[in-house]
Amino acid sequence: MRDRNEPDYEAIVIGAGVAGIYQIKRLADLGVRATVLEAAPDLGGTWYWNRYPGARFDSESYTYGYSFSKELLNEWHWKERFSGQPENLRYLNYVAEKFDLRKYMQFDAKVEAAHYDEAHNLWRLKIADGREVTCRFVIMALGLLSIPTLPRFEGMDSFKGRSFHTLYWPREPVELASKKVAVIGTGATGIQVIGEIADKVGELTVFQRRPNWSAPLNNRPISQAEMADIRARYEEIFATCARTPGGFEHEPDRRGFYEVSREERLKLWDQLYDQPGFAIWLRNFREIFTNEDANAEFSEYIADRIRRRVKDPVVAEKLIPRDHGFGVQRVPMETHYFEAYNRPNVHLVDISETPIVRVTETGLRTTERDYGFDIIVYATGFDAITGAFDHIDIRGVDGETLHDKWKDGPSTFLGMLIHGFPNLLMPAGPQSGSASTNYPRGIETGVNWCTDLLEHMWGHGYMRAEATREAEESWTAHVTQMYATMLMRKAKSWFTGYNSNVPGHEYGRIRYFVYNGGAPKYVARIIEVEQKGYEGIVLTSAAPSLSG
Ligand code: NA7
């Protein structure tokens, strides 16, 4: 018989995406009574939901996979340098099957509330189906970009054709041939969709509010021989990822921007433009992130590339961002994106000039005219990083809500613990190093650190972990201060909490969502905390009260 103070589970992981899968693997290996609650009908998180054409990594596939199992690394063959959604979902399923993790997972189990019960030192979770479950530790693996946001246009429900956010692109094939399709939004998602469907639809009209700086992904297949070589070098590859700021193979060019001649800068940029993935962003001179003039010179280089690729000079100019420089917000990687606008069936509508006024039964109305569509695709982004937390009624000590605590932006210790919310762990939370790096690299770090903390607690008979107010304030100040020299602090980007569709996230209310100091510094700091006996975290062994 279980003690009445003993929770249903020692640990509950919320979310069965990349982070949740690895977290449950670690807990299962330790024999911990744990489960995963996942809102979706199946595992995969981002890669379960995002089925839109063109959805793929822009991290090199072999740096995105888990690194924890040599056997897994040896078995899995990544077929493309930047693998697409179907393959990515297959991979996550393969991992779950291989390590027999499905048995720990509950699907269609949307957590609506998580309340800390101080008297019993446990978390009470309410699931949408009416169940209540309890646990000692709740581990938030909610995803950074899991809550989609839609514009608030009048008449959105009146449209008689099909419309959906990219996250909810239907599972069954969508007939595109001969259809008139609208795509609203030109972020990383819109740019992937547009490049992929331009030659498959009847007509495509892109509604662009702000253009984005974008450069070629340069994807290609990975042969058996290349994969064998990658397998032989995995250790070296992950070691490189661990020492680079972004957790990628790409290392910044450490020469000073102005120490080399303009010819040399151009030579480097010509090379980078043809290299795969984020090389153009992350192998560049470091000054492009901090120095306005250096950034402007490089941005002009990319603008010229766009002009060379887009035939109509008026369209080309519309595709060149004016309000921000290259790389100060997330750089979407593209495949034939700019060439799409050379096709006679693709049209660009600049809605900064002629805004959308409403959705009609047959399409969209701008201040200029009506457009008829069969399908409207909303590639309008996410309530990023804190959105998924906001969607759960999370209450800590004395019933304080996390929503209130974070109303002006998140505050955490290391992005992993929150003062006032004991035993709530975030392997990849706001202000952690994971959000700004190659995600799985950051996730493995975060999951390992959280699991080490739990093992430490179990080993020493501790039952409650809470970050101190001082540690949290100091971490939050540190994360904020790190933006002081970065051009990205001014960008209208989800990195800084901007989302025009979410009240309170308008431009100007900058929030410091992600740790910007790079993976090596982040990892050094969290290891230091661990080595100093979890300095900044109060660990207590007090048994929960038997009363109440
Ligand atoms: P993003 O990068 O937030 O892009 C959203 C796009 O949608 C962007 O172009 C927005 O224009 C546009 N948008 C958003 N709301 C509206 C309204 N109301 N009207 C017109 N246009 C709008 O999201 P993504 O899904 O592309 O990418 C998210 C991440 O997913 C990405 O960084 C990767 O890490 C994976 P704006 O720029 O705000 O003017």
CATH topology of the largest domain: FAD/NAD(P)-binding domain
> What do the pLDDT scores average to?
96
Low-confidence stretches: none
DSSP strand content: 15-25%
Distance between the termini: 19 Å
Main β-sheet, in a few words?
Answer: 8 strands, mixed
Number of helices: 17
Query: Could you say which overall geometry the principal axes of the C-alpha atoms support?
Result: globular
Q: What's the assembly state of these chains?
A: single chain
Radius of gyration: 24 Å
Taken together, the total number of domains comes to 2
Question: What percentage of residues falls in helices of 4 or more residues?
Answer: 25-40%
CATH architecture of the largest domain: 3-Layer(bba) Sandwich
CATH class descriptor name of the largest domain: Alpha Beta
GO molecular function: flavin adenine dinucleotide binding; N,N-dimethylaniline monooxygenase activity; NADP binding
InterPro entries: FAD-binding_Monooxygenases, FAD/NAD-bd_sf, Flavin_mOase-like
Keywords: FAD, Flavoprotein, NADP, Oxidoreductase
